[in-house]
Amino acid sequence: MSYDNIIFxxxxxxxxxxxxxxxxxxxxxxxxxxxxxxxxxxxxxxxxIGAIVVTGAGRGFCAGADxxxxxxxxxxxxxxxxxxKPSKKYVDFIRQSKPLIAAVNGxxxxxxxxxxxxxxxxxxxxxxxxxxxxxxxxxxxxxASSHFLVQRVGFGHASxxxxxxxxxxxxxxxxxxLTNYVVSADLLMDEAMSIARVIAANPARQLRMVKSLxxxxxxxxxxxxxxxxxxxxxxxCYVSAEHKEAVKAFIEKREPNFKNL
Length: 261
Hints:
By secondary structure, the chain is α/β, with parallel strands linked by helices.
């Protein structure tokens, strides 16, 4: 499939998805969203791909929704509240995907940052800036960000970020726990690819299972239910070809080969 708003490439076992509207700081549109989902679906269906890196072209990562093409267009069309509702399926799709690593190279505002909160790893360039400016546009956070932001940074920091709507530096949000790493701009993609390759070396089925457990159990207060989910998953793992290969490789003192199992 050809894309207008993104660039989709494959580097060995890693898929690289680049938001590509640099003249608008990669501002989000419905078409961009559809292309992102299509590209991630392609990567998920490709047995050679083990992980996905998402970054932005030019100076920005994603400067939020395109005000003219998204918000103003909705107002001019006179869409009612139901027609304007965003998809509720995005977060489930991301949490069921192969591992996703965000390499935030520049400004990430509004949906530009909420779309990556459900990702597995977030790296930021030292030049990146983050803002949850929804309140300044007379709207509220979306894409389950009112959950994921609290999970990542805690209630106090999440409250300040969303109620102020101000921009934060990469170092500020890192100190609050939003990102895994802050690196120099010239090393961002190298670091992201390195992490992606470490993750992609692990068995694909178990990676998906780990993501599923973290999604279901991360906020679960019923520890019996948590353990039941884990027990069901590990029982499936014990009889899997991946587990048998890992044990055999350990005994034979070699690296496991999880491909084509």
